[in-house]
Every structure is written in structure tokens, then in C-alpha cells.
Amino acid sequence: MTGHIFGRSTRISPPVAVAGDGCYLIDAGGKRYLDGSGGAAVSCLGHSNQRLRQALHAQLDRLAYAHTGFFTSEPAETLADRLIAKAPEGLERVYLVSGGSEAVEAAIKLARQYFVEIGQNQRHRVIARRQSYHGNTLGALAAGGNEWRRVQFGPLLVETSHIAPCYEYRDRQTGESLEAYGQRVADELETELQRLGPETVMAFICEPVVGATSGAVPAVPGYLRRIREICDRHGVLLIFDEVMCGMGRTGHLFACDEDGVAPDMLTIAKGLGAGYQPIGALLVSGAIYDAIAQGSGFFQHGHTYMGHPMAAAAANAVLTEIEERELLAAVRRQGELLERSLRERLGQHPNVGDIRGRGLFRGVELVEDRGTKRPFDPALRLHARIKALAFESGLICYPMGGTIDGQLGDHVLLAPPFIISDAEIAELVDKLAGAIDGAIAAAQAA
């Protein structure tokens, strides 16, 4: 196409999407694409959900928009109540925004204001993990630890400390148990706190299951519990970023429920609106809310479209679909089938190093040598070749490069809709395996 859109790339003219049908998107030429990644882990209910359509039509007929500086709305109030009813223990309030980056930005600013309100003005530092991704606004980008995304904007970013990720495939030592490994890398937080001075640190942020940058890497048993203990010992707020891994994606409404650990703040987006409306949310503890309420009474933050009635109506319909259709159980069941299918087809592949994840959130890491875990030369851009070949075959997946350190490594992230069938899982795995084989053959011939 030619036109005036400033797209993601000036070198690519993508096809025009004109329709959706369950787990498929359809372009202007009639070609069907199985959405094996839900876009970017967004379209959890597929692309033609009737309840969502009806909810949006009904809300539009009542009220499209009212600025939250003047009004609240019934959909927003209902959504907040429903989220808190299911939220990890201690989370009591919901701050509605329009996406994941906004949610993380709000969390960072609220952490700072919280400590100002309680008289600990010296706390201003954030600690995060290498190879994390928390969004593209400046505060969220500064918190993120993916160098490829950060490097050109470095002079604009607030200094943030980054400790090791919980990346068992790459970093667990020979003979080290999962639990011992988790404790060891979690203890890097204690070391960094002591280096900085714990009294200067306001928050630690992490993804319970790392998404885009590493490809569905879950925390090992005990890791998040040790992180919680360290934060509590030093009065540091714990923020879980569940923008990609939350809202049922792992088989639990909140991913951290599987680990039995509750944060002080939790961010969600993506699957919350299922692609039908842009929406995100920051869930906060009662203690944080009370500090603001008993202090200034005003969170010095805000966005024009926060708490949008149309977006909240869509999110309420998403929650209803998940509950009434028992989709969390479906995610766990179909996630097991997806994992089995991937292992049967790719488990012994000479260039597949790891298959990992939870629920319908799975990652496949590619290596040049399985024995040494040596990655492919990044100049080959294996991930880009896989994406192109998969798309050509009618599969949307989410490959990325820089898996290990922002430069080395390739992986494919899968996050299909919660409604995916057995036959569609078979199609996904078949087309993905073909794209991987084709990309590797082309890269080796290059």
C-alpha cells in the first residue's frame, strides 16, 4: 500500500486486515492467517467474539466517554470491583489506563509519590532485571532491561539497576537444583540493594513469566517468594508486570497466583481488552492507596482516556467470557496439548534448545548447537526469517532476536487465543516447524 501511515517499519508494506474469524485474521485478498501469538499476546478471545461486539454496541448506545476529572462510570466501577474480587491478597484499588506502558508508568510514579507521602523522600531508585521489557514510554523503558530497545534512547532514560533474570535454561549450573538456582539469582537483589543503599530504593519490578524479550520464561519454584522476602526486609515495593502474561494467559487470571506470591502493585493490559478496546490497569495495595488518601489525597498523574467507559465495557465482557466459558481451565488443557505437540515435533530438533512456558504462553529457543547451547550468529537474523516464512504459510507468530543479552539468541513466542482447538494447535505446530526448518536452511546457505 501507499499512503500516509507512519508504520512500524518504513521498509515493509503489510497486507490489509479486513476481517476476523475465530482464531484467524483475513486480509484484503482473502488469505487466512492463524493467529498463533494473539498479535502480541492480546487477542485472547479470537477475532469475532459476539459477546464483545454486543457489549460495545450496547455501551455506545448509552455512553461513549466521560472525563474522569468530572465523572466515574458504571462499567469502570464494575470492572474495578471484579478485578479486586479475583486479585492477589492485599490489592484493593484499580487505576484504569489505556495500555501496558501507561500502567507501568503509573506504577513507577505512584511508587515515588507513596514514599514522598510517608516521608521517605530519599527513596527514588528502581531495580529491575536484564532482558526484561516493561513498555516504551520513557519511565517504563528505563525500567526495562532489554538493551536493543534502550540503546538509542539512553541519554533520555533515568538510571535503573538491572540484576540477572531468572533464566534457568541458560544460567542454572550443573548439579544445581531449581530451588537453589532460584534462591541464588533472587539474592542478587539483596546484593544490589546493599550496593545502592536499601534506603534509596523504592521498587523492584519483574515479569512473573517473561514475555517478548526472552520467550515465555517462567520463574522457577521459590524465586518470587525469596524476592518478596527481600523486598519486605528493606521496605521496597514489589511490582509485578503482568501486561503480557496476565489475564488468564498462563491458566490463572493473575500469573503470580501460580507462584503463591502477592505484589504491592500489579500491571495488566493486553488480554484485559482482548484487542477489542485499548485498556490497561494498575492494581495497588490498600496500604499504598491509604497513604495517598490520608496525605495529599491526589495522585499527581493522569491520562485523558483513563477509565474509558467503552474500554471498561469490553474488559467486563472479557471477564464474563473467561468465567462463563471456563476458559482458564481451557487454557491449562490446551496449553498442555500445545506443549506436548511442540515437544513431539521439535523436542529432538537439532536446533531447538528449549521449549518452555505456562498455559497458552510458550516459547521455543533456537540454537546452532544443542550441546553447547551456542546461539546462531545474529547477523543471520534467524528470528526474522522464521517470522516471514511462517506469515507466508498463514501463521502469525512472535519471533524475536537478542534472547540472551539483547544481541545474541533467537526465540519464537506463542500466545494463541484461549479458544484454540486441537486441530488449530496441530496446524500451528506444523506451520511453525516448517518455518523453522526453512529459515535454518536458508540461514545456513547464506
UniProtKB/TrEMBL annotation:
Keywords: Aminotransferase, Pyridoxal phosphate, Transferase. GO terms for molecular function: pyridoxal phosphate binding; transaminase activity. This is Aspartate aminotransferase family protein. It holds the Pfam family Aminotran_3. InterPro entries: Aminotrans_3, Aminotrans_3_PPA_site, PyrdxlP-dep_Trfase, PyrdxlP-dep_Trfase_major, PyrdxlP-dep_Trfase_small. SUPFAM superfamilies: PLP-dependent transferases (SSF53383). The keyword Nucleus does not apply. It comes from Paracoccus solventivorans. One of its GO terms (cellular component) is cytosol. PANTHER family: AMINOTRANSFERASE, AMINOTRANSFERASE CLASS-III. Belongs to the class-III pyridoxal-phosphate-dependent aminotransferase family. Its cofactor is pyridoxal 5'-phosphate. The keyword Protein biosynthesis does not apply.
